[in-house]
């Protein structure tokens, strides 16, 4: 399922050159993007980059200063929030404490013109979807945090919105519960077919749940791609650095066809890389490579294009993996991540050990911005 690759697919949401200014401050800057039906779309970016403003414009709590927002092909800017097929679930959940789970879910339906018997059916369906049937009579204070989150989700989906906006939906849950709930969220999104747009500070969460991730900075979309696309092929140092751990090494490029050498220090071999970007000879570039792409060994690995010698400065044992910080003679500190499988158990390096780092020419990316 990848409608963004299909030129005939109709987007559910279209932002067309949307700008939002608060006074002379530009919170969202000339933004154009399509979000498709049944997508799980994540907005990522540092605090203040405009994620919430974008969501609030979708919900109708803010209007753009310039540009259009279309839903199903129609401009929704003049449509008030309560008449949009859009709902928003807040981090606080905002459940009514004096109402039961059942009543909380039914609340919005009762205020609509849905007939009474249908309300019962719809609430039952939502309780089933979120596995809360057994708790229908309880009050919010009589259920757990994870269950409250599910009730909030059931309530947000009860009126079958076309678009559900989720603002840090799992922010109140602890790590373990949060991980389990991510999969539930994906499951529920799939079952209902509703388009979800999520804002989260947790990049792992965004990568886990989303079909596509948008990385924002200062009101602009820097890159929009699948989680793997964002992680494996970041378009800038900003994105490479924002998502996951990465080594960034600067140098001058020498180019021969699709092969690029990155000369990062005097008197040592350059880094060998391949690229499809237009890079010119002598251009200043940044080379980005993820720690898990680099192998740490006593000897250079013959089947890899890149070999650099260094000294172990730090080892972080994380159980399944260990992180090695290796200082190169040219001064750079490189981090490498190795799985602690049984095969590698004999690889017990210690501080100050001389090691070889090896990686392939396709492991990293050459970036020009
Ligand atoms: P966070 O992750 O901290 O929630 P965000 O990416 O959601 O941040 P926004 O809340 O969209 O950021 O805010 C973007 C920028 O717009 C911020 O610099 C903020 O101060 C500014 N801003 C937001 N709302 C208003 C407002 N009503 N008046 C003036 N400035 C605002």
TrEMBL record:
<keyword id="KW-0472">Membrane</keyword>
<dbReference type="InterPro" id="IPR008995">
    <property type="entry name" value="Mo/tungstate-bd_C_term_dom"/>
</dbReference>
<dbReference type="InterPro" id="IPR017871">
    <property type="entry name" value="ABC_transporter-like_CS"/>
</dbReference>
<dbReference type="GO" id="GO:0015847">
    <property type="term" value="P:putrescine transport"/>
</dbReference>
<dbReference type="InterPro" id="IPR003439">
    <property type="entry name" value="ABC_transporter-like_ATP-bd"/>
</dbReference>
<protein>
    <recommendedName>
        <fullName>Spermidine/putrescine import ATP-binding protein PotA</fullName>
        <ecNumber>7.6.2.11</ecNumber>
    </recommendedName>
</protein>
<dbReference type="Pfam" id="PF00005">
    <property type="entry name" value="ABC_tran"/>
</dbReference>
<dbReference type="Pfam" id="PF08402">
    <property type="entry name" value="TOBE_2"/>
</dbReference>
<dbReference type="GO" id="GO:0015417">
    <property type="term" value="F:ABC-type polyamine transporter activity"/>
</dbReference>
<comment type="similarity">
    <text>Belongs to the ABC transporter superfamily. Spermidine/putrescine importer (TC 3.A.1.11.1) family.</text>
</comment>
<keyword id="KW-0067">ATP-binding</keyword>
<dbReference type="GO" id="GO:0016887">
    <property type="term" value="F:ATP hydrolysis activity"/>
</dbReference>
<keyword id="KW-0813">Transport</keyword>
<dbReference type="InterPro" id="IPR005893">
    <property type="entry name" value="PotA-like"/>
</dbReference>
<keyword id="KW-1003">Cell membrane</keyword>
<dbReference type="GO" id="GO:0005524">
    <property type="term" value="F:ATP binding"/>
</dbReference>
<dbReference type="InterPro" id="IPR027417">
    <property type="entry name" value="P-loop_NTPase"/>
</dbReference>
<comment type="function">
    <text>Part of the ABC transporter complex PotABCD involved in spermidine/putrescine import. Responsible for energy coupling to the transport system.</text>
</comment>
<dbReference type="InterPro" id="IPR003593">
    <property type="entry name" value="AAA+_ATPase"/>
</dbReference>
<dbReference type="GO" id="GO:0043190">
    <property type="term" value="C:ATP-binding cassette (ABC) transporter complex"/>
</dbReference>
<dbReference type="InterPro" id="IPR013611">
    <property type="entry name" value="Transp-assoc_OB_typ2"/>
</dbReference>
<keyword id="KW-0997">Cell inner membrane</keyword>
<keyword id="KW-1278">Translocase</keyword>
<feature type="domain" description="ABC transporter">
    <location>
        <begin position="13"/>
        <end position="243"/>
    </location>
</feature>
<keyword id="KW-0547">Nucleotide-binding</keyword>
<dbReference type="InterPro" id="IPR050093">
    <property type="entry name" value="ABC_SmlMolc_Importer"/>
</dbReference>
<comment type="subunit">
    <text>The complex is composed of two ATP-binding proteins (PotA), two transmembrane proteins (PotB and PotC) and a solute-binding protein (PotD).</text>
</comment>
């Amino acid at each position: 399922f990848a409608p963004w690759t299909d030129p005939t697919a109709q987007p559910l949401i279209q932002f067309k050159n949307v700008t939002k200014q608060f006074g002379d401050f530009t919170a969202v800057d000339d933004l154009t993007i399509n979000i498709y039906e049944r997508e799980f779309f994540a907005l990522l970016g540092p605090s203040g980059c405009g994620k919430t403003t974008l969501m609030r414009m979708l919900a109708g709590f803010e209007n753009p200063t310039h540009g259009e927002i279309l839903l199903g092909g129609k401009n929704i800017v003049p449509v008030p929030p309560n008449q949009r097929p859009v709902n928003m679930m807040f981090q606080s959940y905002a459940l009514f404490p004096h109402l039961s789970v059942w009543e909380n879910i039914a609340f919005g339906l009762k205020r609509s013109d849905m007939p009474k018997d249908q309300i019962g059916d719809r609430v039952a369906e939502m309780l089933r979807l979120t596995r809360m049937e057994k708790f229908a009579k309880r009050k919010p204070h009589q259920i757990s945090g994870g269950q409250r989150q599910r009730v909030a989700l059931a309530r947000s989906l009860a009126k079958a919105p076309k678009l559900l906006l989720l603002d840090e939906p799992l922010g109140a849950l602890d790590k373990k519960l949060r991980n389990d709930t991510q999969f539930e969220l994906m499951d529920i999104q799939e079952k209902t077919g509703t388009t979800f747009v999520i804002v989260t500070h947790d990049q792992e969460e965004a990568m886990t749940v989303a079909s596509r991730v948008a990385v924002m900075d200062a009101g602009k979309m820097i890159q929009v791609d699948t989680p793997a696309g964002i992680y494996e092929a970041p378009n800038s140092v900003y994105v490479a650095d924002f998502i996951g751990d990465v080594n960034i090494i600067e140098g001058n490029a020498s180019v021969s066809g699709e092969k690029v050498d990155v000369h990062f220090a005097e008197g040592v071999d350059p880094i060998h890389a391949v690229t499809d970007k237009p890079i010119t000879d002598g251009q200043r570039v940044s080379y980005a490579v993820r720690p898990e792409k680099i192998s740490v060994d006593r000897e250079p690995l013959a089947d890899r294009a890149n070999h650099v010698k260094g000294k172990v400065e730090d080892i972080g044992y994380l159980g399944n993996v260990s992180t090695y910080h290796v200082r190169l003679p040219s001064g750079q500190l490189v981090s490498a991540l190795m799985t602690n499988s049984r095969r590698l158990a004999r690889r017990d390096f210690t501080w100050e050990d001389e090691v070889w780092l090896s990686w392939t020419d396709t492991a990293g990316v050459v970036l020009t911005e």
